[in-house]
Amino acid sequence: MTLGCSKSTVSNRLASLGFRKIFSTWMPHELRESDRACRVSIAESLLLRPHRKDLLNGIVTGDESWVMYVNDTRKRVWLPKGELPPKQSKRALNRRRFFYVVGGIVMGCSTTNSWKVALL
Length: 120
What we know:
- Keywords: Membrane, Transmembrane, Transmembrane helix.
- By secondary structure, the protein is α+β, with helices and mostly antiparallel strands.
- It has helices spanning about 5-15, 35-45, and strands at about 20-25, 25, 65-70, 75-80, 85-90, 95-100, 105, 115-120.
- The protein has one domain (about 5-120).
- The protein has a two-stranded antiparallel ribbon.
- It is elongated and about 75 Å long.
């Protein structure tokens, strides 16, 4: 179905009617209690190591990410001014994906989904 006018005309008309084109908002990620306990135990083990000069040389820092094979993109929606954007949940990690680690050693479970990255 066509309206017989350009996209910019439709966008300008919706904007003049008080609508705005916005993205949905991501729902916040919450850590499970087991994830928090895992992070605390790693931090405590680092603090309990003997204080020696080369301690900092043995710490490996890095980043980890789950990269999805199917990358669902968020779409913009037109909403009247003052209306809250719709919430969109983050992608479930049980879908097909691969684990990407930069600067770490994969050993077991991480705090996000059963993979731990060794810090030392």
